[in-house]
Amino acid sequence: MIYLSGRSRARQGDPVTIGRVLLLMAGVACLGCNPPGSVPLSPAPSQTPTPTPTPSVVVFATPQHSSSLALTPGGTALFVANGGVPKVTVMQSGSGTLHKQLDITVGAEPTSIAITPDGQRAYVTNRGTVPGTVTVLHATLRFKLSDIAVGTEPCGCVLSPTGRWLFVANAMSNSISVIDTVAGVVVNTIALPDGAFPFALACTNDGDTDDADEKVLVTQFFGQLGDGERPGQTLGDTDQDRVGKVSVIDVRSGSDATVRATIRLASRDSGFGADRTEFGGGGGRTFCRADRARRPRSGTT
Ligand SMILES: [Ca+2]
């Protein structure tokens, strides 16, 4: 059984409870929040389980929220991207508790973190500037090393199994940046179709020491038209007939990584049509009245 903290007071430097971390992972807790006392992952054998207390809600001044977590190899430290502020929080783990260690300043709106298999480097995508950047951190000594410019709004990143190549999903650029982590530079930019909005990535790992035979899979955030299809012409683009797509990239030698295939996901008839009315079992709600959507704004310029 996992217990949540029922304490509501917080002081800087106190242990962060596991329950707080679970709330944090759910996107509802805040960092910089350190309720006193630690909470075990499970009760001692001699203890009688007690009812789980209702977790209290605590609002902390900063950071305001987090969006991505990464554990170092062995799980000794947790890196957390704080999207509301340009910082990554590092927490030290041990004996079932987490202790906030420090904040490291990175780029604006950090979104995603990847840590190399040897635990020496952490890569943080920052989507708050144009172009976006990847901040390189010394993961063991906990300081910033450099920034690498990538595409616009890098939302996700993944390392190849050996840690040699970092793949970055540039959502607004519709591209994937490939960074050579040894040289610290972008060696390849893979173009995806317009509107793909690549968002999250994963990399296969067959367990050997060769990255060239691995594949990176990239989700496309928005529904896409099927092959050979065109958007509706009544009021422009529509949601009907859209499908999900996943791009499959061969890692090869990084600099020549390329899209080898696109997986088309089963469509689900759901969304908002050209008349702004929901379809697909959603109850016919109107997202935005068509007349209002087309009404010109009043005022002067
Ligand atoms: Ca391999």
> What's the tally of helices?
2
- Return the average pLDDT rounded to an integer: 76
Question: Which parts are unreliable, with pLDDT below 50 for 5 consecutive residues or more?
Answer: 1-45, 289-301
Query: Could you name the CATH topology of the largest domain?
Result: Methylamine Dehydrogenase, Chain H
Walk me through the structure:
It is globular and about 55 Å long. The chain is built from two helices and 21 strands. About 5% of the residues lie in helices and about 35% in strands. The relative contact order is 0.08. With about 300 residues, the protein is mainly beta. The protein has helices at about 20-25, 290-295; strands at about 15, 70, 75-80, 85-95, 95-105, 110-115, 120-125, 135-140, 145-150, 155-160, 165-170, 175-180, 185-190, 200-205, 215-220, 225, 240-245, 245-250, 260-265, 270, 280. The protein has three domains: about 1-110, no CATH class; about 150-270, Methylamine Dehydrogenase, Chain H; about 270-300, no CATH class. The chain starts with 14 loop residues before the first strand and ends in a 7-residue tail after the last helix. Calcium ion binds near residues 206, 210, 211 and 214. Calcium ion binds next to loops.
What's the topology here?
Layout: E1 15-16, H1 18-25, E2 68-71, E3 77-82, E4 87-94, E5 97-105, E6 110-115, E7 121-126, E8 133-138, E9 143-149, E10 154-159, E11 165-170, E12 175-180, E13 185-191, E14 198-203, E15 215-220, E16 224-225, E17 242-243, E18 245-250, E19 258-264, E20 271-272, E21 278-279, H2 290-294
The structure holds calcium ion.
